[in-house]
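Re: the 319-residue chain
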Amino acid sequence: MKKTIIITLAAIAALICAGCGDNAVSNAQDQQADDFARRYSGSGGGVTTYTLTVNRNPTVGGTVTVNGVTYTNPTTHNANASVTVVATANSGYTFTGWSGDSTSTNASITVTMSTNRTVIANFAITTGSFTDSRDDRTYRTVMPDGKTWFAENLNYRNPDWSHNDVTGSVSVSTRGSWCHGNNSSNCGTYGRLYTWAAAMDNACPVGWRLPTLEDWRRLFRAVGGVNQGNWAYAGTALKSSPSDSPSWDGANRFGFSALPGGIGWVGSFSDLGAWGHWWSATEFDAGNAWYVGMGTGHSGVYERWSNKSGGLSVRCLKD
């Protein structure tokens, strides 16, 4: 019968150092412990690894690959490994450069893993402009969700509508628009307020349309909104900053520049500078339609329905 004999390094050291004294045995055991510690602590003669963390600013701005694999979580690499990191901008964004432990404007960089590293891929919203041939007014445009939106409230007065600058009664089928408080300067800052019928009846120029409720929801998801119905965080991301509207508290992270244009009814106006309300193309019922709203002191966006005869702001979405 074969016998298996296991001799530890400490025992070998003891045999080799037989007669060398207790100090020699102790030194050999200490050396064994040191070798073990170096191997498993990632130093000395063992395999040393470091962690690479990649952040995106903003997250929806693009994607990143690490050694050809889409990045989702921190990755681990051997010490001094050369890691290829590539940033790709999403539609509506451009890549502006790396920051953190590597600074470069090249989309592709090589990171040497001599320690734990963190790099940040920075993206900027792509802005554009559109000139409405009907009145030669030019609007800024942005693509926060890959779709092209007006970055300003619509300010078009259709001369064919039967009710412009409304002062009398209107019905749910009335096509009309007016400035908040019947003050033309408010149209210049906040755009016009439209009845739902007017908003639906080619208020937006050819090639553009009134967004549906689902279009709005897609936008809110893209900018980080959660909890459908009140869309926490989406309001802060989309509202203009205090430098654009002092009474508002937005971060305007995506260039959408939502402004608090208020709301209008026949002979009555409210919420200017505090709340913004925008029609959707989605009906609630025959007399009402869905809209979305943002307000001072609120980080989210709410969904509600309103009578179609009310005057709300309009944002146009490219077909």
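The first strand starts at residue 49 and ends at 57.
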